[in-house]
Structures are given as structure tokens and as C-alpha cells.
Write a structure and sequence with these properties.
This protein is an alpha+beta fold and 239 residues long. The protein has 2 domains: 80 residues, Winged helix-like DNA-binding domain superfamily/Winged helix DNA-binding domain (Arc Repressor Mutant, subunit A); 138 residues, Arc Repressor Mutant, subunit A (Orthogonal Bundle). A hairpin with a 7-residue loop joins strand 5 and strand 6. It is elongated and about 75 Å long. The C terminus is likely disordered.
Length: 239
């Protein structure tokens, strides 16, 4: 990969403007590999950066590289403001889930199809109310009924779940150990109160491009779910 390609990737991935010195430190070995000496690394990177800026300044480009607050970052060109604004308005807002809701979603994703009693047994707390939240978010849907006494409803993840989490299919889910680590890191970095169906819990945000989702439940199952929730109550204080 060329020095300019690496430079482009770094600026694209940077969440905040990245300084020239930081870029030089990251691309020192690449610059030397392209023939620059130790003393020429910074000027070599600067030349590549200027060429990249010129490339993006071309009229057929919709974004540009700008110098902002002492660093460099990519941004849309001012003349594309209207179309970008319209696109932003069309996006779905991020889904915010409480920790219990995220736990329940994880159980369904890894154990699907699964019933509410099975989910509650794994979590150690009644999960009826959390199920209603996930159905409302269209992250799960019904998958028929289990052939046991009472014929409880089975639940599975939806296409919307895959879209929101950026997965090709459930086979791309991380291992349980990796998932637990990701959840722990997420909630340690941002512990904010969140009301979800009238309860509090730490939020987790997931955002992807909008797309059509599967229907959550059939009209006949909606009545069953409501009846089950009212009968069982919601013992999970943070659902």
C-alpha cells in the first residue's frame, strides 16, 4: 500500500483532526520504505498530504480534506450541504438500550429461537417487559411456539438486528467472552441514566443506515404477549 493510501485511511478514520506530527509518527516506516531518509520523513509525508488534498479538491469529489484546529480531517464540501442535510434527516435515530435489554438481546441472539422462561432462567430475573421493549425496537420477532406444555412463544433476532449491529448473519457474532468484554467497556465509558419503559439503566447506542425491517409480531401474538406480560409482571427493575 502506498504512503498516500495509508495517509488517506488514517485521516478518514480519525474522529478528531489529526496533526502532521502524529501522521509522521504513524507513517515513518512507510516513508522510509519509499526511499525517504530519517531527516526527509516529515517533508515526504507533507508532500503526500498536499497531493492528497489536491486530489480531493477536484470538482468531481464530494468531500475534501481540511486543516482544522491544528490538524487534518475529512469533511463534506460546502456545496453538498443540502443533499447531506436531507440525508441526515432521513436517518433513523440511534437505538438506546438499557443494560438488561442488551443482556436479553444477547441471550436471544446466541440461543435463538428461545422462550421467555428460558431467557429469564439464564438471566436470573423475569424478562417479560424487556421482551416488549425489544419487540417495539424491531430487534427481535416471534419464531412460532415451542412444542411443550403451554406452547410458549419462541423469539429470534431480526434483519434489523443485523443491520443495527453491522453483521452479515448471526454467525459473525463475537464469542460470549468477547461480547461480555465489549459490553463491560461500553458501560464503563458512559454511565448515564436512561428511561426505557419507565426504568433506569445505562445506555448503549447502536446506529446504522436505515433499512426495512421484519414485522415484529403478528396481531394474534401481540395479544398473547400483552397478556403474558400483564400476568407475569416485570420483576426486572431496569427493563
Amino acid at each position: 500500500m502506498s504512503l498516500k493510501a495509508k495517509l488517506e485511511a488514517i485521516i478518514y478514520a480519525a474522529e478528531t483532526p489529526i496533526t502532521l506530527d502524529h501522521i509522521v509518527a504513524l507513517l515513518k516506516d512507510s516513508a522510509i520504505a519509499e526511499g525517504a531518509t530519517e531527516d526527509e520523513v516529515k517533508s515526504h509525508v507533507r508532500v503526500a498530504l498536499e497531493e492528497l488534498i489536491d486530489d480531493y479538491a477536484a470538482p468531481h469529489r464530494g468531500i475534501e480534506i481540511r486543516q482544522i484546529a491544528g490538524g487534518y480531517r475529512m469533511s463534506t464540501k460546502p456545496e453538498q450541504h443540502d443533499v447531506v442535510r436531507d440525508f441526515a434527516k432521513s436517518l433513523k435515530p440511534p437505538i438506546r438500550l438499557s443494560l438488561p435489554a442488551l443482556e436479553t438481546l444477547a441471550v436471544i441472539a446466541y440461543k435463538q429461537p428461545v422462550t421467555v422462561p428460558e431467557i429469564s432462567e439464564i438471566r436470573g430475573v423475569d424478562s417479560s417487559g424487556v421482551i416488549a421493549t425489544l419487540l417495539d425496537r424491531k430487534l427481535i420477532t416471534t419464531a412460532g411456539r415451542k412444542a411443550v406444555i403451554g406452547r410458549p412463544i419462541l423469539y429470534k433476532s431480526t434483519k434489523e438486528f443485523l443491520l443495527r449491529f453491522g453483521l452479515k448473519d448471526v454467525g459473525e457474532l463475537p464469542s460470549m467472552e468477547e461480547f461480555e468484554k465489549l459490553v463491560a467497556e461500553s458501560f464503563q465509558s458512559e454511565l448515564l441514566p436512561l428511561s426505557d419503559n419507565g426504568a433506569e439503566g445505562a445506555p448503549a447506542e447502536v446506529s446504522v443506515a436505515p433499512a426495512e425491517s421484519e414485522p415484529a409480531v403478528s396481531s394474534s401474538d401481540e395479544d398473547t404477549i400483552l397478556a403474558e406480560s400483564q400476568a407475569a409482571g416485570e420483576n426486572d427493575p431496569a427493563a
